[in-house]
Inverse folding.
């Protein structure tokens, strides 16, 4: 289900032959996610932070229309001028936005009309991409690549959002048609690897696509630290729950304890107690809690409290990236190993689950790198204006599109957010 990779992270000069195919493939991937939906599902919005499936389909089309078709296609005809307001997410430089919390009220346009809107935009985009002599070709290609990665982000949000909205249904609907496979391989014991003090280069340094918040690359003096060999499992987190971890205020940050009390939070999001046993709601429906799978859908507050309970801490984003820099063979595989020379104890134990399982909370606040400057214009609102009151997550999740993850990728959410596929990696001072 999650195999429609973009795999287009090349400089503009090398993407001209493949950009139209990548565009079509990525746009089709969004529609494939809808295969298991009924028409009644398209407008679900269970809280302001999640968006209905239909809104995701329309907003990603709005992005291409607003930032490419309108400025670069002479005489381009808007499908519906009202959509400029209805499907603008947060770009104040473009204009006003329909209230985020009320997106579920948009019964119109219908699902059929939304799909027609996508076709209208796609036809115009393909025609534009085939104009190899356009005077603004390079800018068009760069913005198109940004738009495709933006759509991949919304494909992941599509899954997180519909899962949240589905979770309130006692029928526990499934988005995936295939049965969920059990954890096949026995997990190694949780161990910690030692990393020496080092002057590391943090941030994106390649030639391919990246978001502006990954730059500029900069030197960072990193003290010695210890890093967990794998993610925290459901079984390990269950021990925290059973030990009264949610009842001990000494384990929690002040804001976290207030959040836990206000919401009467007692376990990860989507854990369900049935017949004195734990189940977990997944995109495959309600499943028996798998003890070996990484714990998922925990907030930063929960991750921090668990780490304290263990006598450990969460890694900084710089520590996480430093470990990832040592990984072989590529940084986008779901399970990767360290080079032998990276460890001070020379025992060659693997570090696994860096990508493709859950986003991993770090203890780092989401803030600009030294020398960061947002790009000019409305596109500059993409990342920079959110650098306040949020925490950084690293890696990627099981619903991140392949080819979308990088060791320098900085995801960010508020510390109370549970609806994202977020989990826990432990660290410690050496």
């Amino acid at each position: 289900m999650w195999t429609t990779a973009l795999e287009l992270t090349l400089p503009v000069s090398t993407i001209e032959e493949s950009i139209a195919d990548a565009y079509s493939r990525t746009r089709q991937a969004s529609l494939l996610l809808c295969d298991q939906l009924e028409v009644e599902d398209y407008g679900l919005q269970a809280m302001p932070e999640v968006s209905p499936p239909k809104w995701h389909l329309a907003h990603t089309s709005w992005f291409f229309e607003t930032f490419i078709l309108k400025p670069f296609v002479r005489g381009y005809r808007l499908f519906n001028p009202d959509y400029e307001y209805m499907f603008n997410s947060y770009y104040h430089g473009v204009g006003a936005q329909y209230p985020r919390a009320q997106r579920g009220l948009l019964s119109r346009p219908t699902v059929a009309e939304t799909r027609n809107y996508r076709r209208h935009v796609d036809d115009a985009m393909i025609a534009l991409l085939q104009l190899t002599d356009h005077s603004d070709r390079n800018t068009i290609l760069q913005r198109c690549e940004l738009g495709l990665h933006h759509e991949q982000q919304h494909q992941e949000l599509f899954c997180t959002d519909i899962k949240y909205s589905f979770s309130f249904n006692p029928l526990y609907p499934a988005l995936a048609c295939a049965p969920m496979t059990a954890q096949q391989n026995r997990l190694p014991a949780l161990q910690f690897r030692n990393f020496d003090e080092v002057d590391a280069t943090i941030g994106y340094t390649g030639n391919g696509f990246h978001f502006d918040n990954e730059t500029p690359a900069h030197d960072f003096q990193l003290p010695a630290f210890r890093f967990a060999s794998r993610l925290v499992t459901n079984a390990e987190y269950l021990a925290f729950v059973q030990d009264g971890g949610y009842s001990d205020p000494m384990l929690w940050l002040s804001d976290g304890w207030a959040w836990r009390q206000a919401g009467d939070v007692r376990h990860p999001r989507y854990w369900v107690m049935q017949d004195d046993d734990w189940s977990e709601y997944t995109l495959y429906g309600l499943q028996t809690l798998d003890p070996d799978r990484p714990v998922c859908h925990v907030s930063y507050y929960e991750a921090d409290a668990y780490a304290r309970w263990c006598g450990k801490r969460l890694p900084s984003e710089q520590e996480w990236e430093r470990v990832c820099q040592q990984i072989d063979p590529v940084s986008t595989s779901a399970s990767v190993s360290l080079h032998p020379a990276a460890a001070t104890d020379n025992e060659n134990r693997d570090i696994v689950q860096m990508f493709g399982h859950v986003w991993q909370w770090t203890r780092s606040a989401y803030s600009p790198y030294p020398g960061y400057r947002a790009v000019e214009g409305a596109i500059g609102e993409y990342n920079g204006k959110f650098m306040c009151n949020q925490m950084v997550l690293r890696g990627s999740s099981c619903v991140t599109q392949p080819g979308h993850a990088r060791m320098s990728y900085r995801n960010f959410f508020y510390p109370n957010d549970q609806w994202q596929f977020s989990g826990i990696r432990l660290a410690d001072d050496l």
User: Anything to note?
Assistant: Residues 1-15, 329-348 have pLDDT under 50 and may be disordered. The domain at 12-166 is CATH 1.20.120 (Four Helix Bundle (Hemerythrin (Met), subunit A)). The longest helix spans residues 137-166.
